Amino acid sequence: MKDWEKLEADVNKLLTKHYTKGRGGYKVEFVVVHYNAGNLTINGCYSVWQAREASAHYQVEDDGDIGQLVWDGNTAWHAGDWVANCKSIGIEHANLKDGTITEAALDNGAHLVAAVCKYYGLGRPTWLNVVFPHKHFSATSCPGQIYGSQKDAYIKRAQYWYDKMTGAEVPDEPEVEEPVLDVDGLWGPKTSLRLQQVLGAPFKDGIISRQNKYWKGSCPGCTDGWEWLQSGYGEGSQTIALLQKKTGAKVDGILGEETINKLIAYYMKKGSGAKVLDGKLDYESLTVKAMQKALNSGKF
User: Fold this and answer.
1) What is the edge-to-edge ordering of all strands in the sheet holding 58-60?
2) Which of 13-17, 163-167, 226-230, 294-298 has the lowest mean pLDDT?
3) Distance between CA atoms of residues 246 and 199, nearest Å
4) H-helix segments, 131-208
């Protein structure tokens, strides 16, 4: 976004049809969020809406870039309800195959929601008050996991940005108890939370963002905790990026073979018992056990 305060998008790609000039006497009262049901760019949305009788005011790409396709002063055709269209700002998001959006899209999409709320005096963003999912007005799966597995993360981020933009006093985060980890070699939510605390990750929620590329080998008897490692939101993880910096891996936020080998090598030096750089964190992994021991001892 070029200017959050003035709602100036990175790109203006304005439609010449499939919207209505003006707002029919209504004013902006809320935001409606959408997903593309595909990973579209700003130009991709513009192209689709040439033939489809639909539109939205903004598109958020998966890298966080924001485009304006309909001016705020006009009515976009996005909610499936005429009065809702007249009263709202529609924000589209590019999404991954599972309906989630990337970390960059989540952060900038939520930031845009906050900016709209501030600009139009709508108040602090909350679900079903000033921020609505498309499905609230129409029979649709839209906005995918934005109003599913990412629902809480999205609105929490929007509130964070709103408080920052309005200068509101943001209360200190309550201290989170440092978990004592079972040294079981299973990388679950408690291990993730402790790792986030030690590395100083921005969000300490025990969830490591969804990985676009991660080891898919067999994992007999894995706990639900392991699946937490593979779920959540976003492509690439800030926590994994911090771990990569510590171990000397390429920093891309993806828990791939190179990062795993760097982690294995890091703990080989610390006597984990791991012997092979095979790019895998096996069930009851010696490397994960070594990491858990280090996290418990405070000598990570």
Assistant:
1) 11-12, 66-68, 58-60, 88-93, 30-33, 131-133
2) 226-230
3) 9
4) 151-166, 189-199
Of all helices (H) and strands (E), which one includes residue 42? helix 42-51
Helices 189-199 and 238-247, axial angle in degrees (round to 10): 60
- pLDDT given for residue 266 in this prediction: 86
pTM: 0.61
Q: Are 131 and 155 in contact (CB under 8 A)?
A: yes
Question: How crowded is residue 174: how many other Cβ atoms within 10 Å of its Cβ?
Answer: 6
The whole-angstrom separation of Cα 253 and Cα 178 is 24
* Spatial contact of 273 and 172, defined as CB atoms under 8 Å apart: no
Mean pLDDT computed over 257-274: 81
The pair of structure tokens assigned to 64 is 């966080």
The torsion angles phi and psi of 3, rounded to 5 degrees, stand at: -150, 105
pLDDT at position 231 over 70: no
The answer on pLDDT for 176 being more than 50 is: no
Question: pLDDT-derived band of residue 178, with 50, 70 and 90 as boundaries?
Answer: low
Report the C-alpha gap between 95 and 20 in whole angstroms: 27
Q: Report CA-CA distances (Å) from 161 to 30, 57, 118, 183, 249.
A: 17, 20, 10, 38, 31
Task: Write the burial class of residue 3 (CB in 10 Å: 0-12 exposed, 13-18 middle, 19+ buried).
Answer: exposed
